[in-house]
Design brief:
Layout lengths: L10 E3 L2 H7 L3 E4 L14 H13 L9 E3 L12 H12 L2
Parallel strand pairs: 1-2, 2-3
C-alpha cells in the first residue's frame, strides 16, 4: 500500500525463512540473533552502522520481492556461538 503511493519500503530481518515466506517488496537479511537486528542493545555505534548499511541497500534493488544479503555477521570472527547462547537465554527466561 505504501509502495503503491511511491514510497519505497524496506524490511530488515533476521529470519531468512520467514522473509522468504512473507515476500516483502524489498528485504535485507541481517544474520544476527532474532530480536537484535541492529546489533547488541545499547551499542549505539553498531546499531547505527547496521541501520546505515541496510538503508544503503535501497538503491540496489532491481526487482520486487528481492532479498539482499550484505554479509552481516554477529561475531567478528564469524562464530555462530551466539545461536546456542541465545537459545540458553530464551530457555532461562521461560
Amino acid at each position: 500500500m505504501i509502495d503503491n503511493r511511491g514510497i519505497p519500503t524496506l524490511l530488515a530481518g533476521t529470519a531468512l525463512d520467514i522473509i522468504r515466506q512473507v515476500v516483502p517488496p524489498r528485504a535485507v537479511f541481517v544474520d544476527h540473533p532474532v530480536g537484535r537486528t541492529f546489533g547488541p542493545p545499547h551499542d549505539r555505534g553498531r546499531n547505527e552502522a547496521v541501520l546505515a548499511r541496510v538503508l544503503a541497500e535501497l538503491p540496489n534493488f532491481t526487482q520486487p520481492g528481492e532479498i539482499r544479503d550484505p554479509g552481516f555477521e554477529w561475531a567478528p570472527n564469524g562464530s555462530r556461538a551466539w545461536e546456542s547462547e541465545l537459545r540458553a537465554e530464551m530457555l532461562h527466561d521461560r
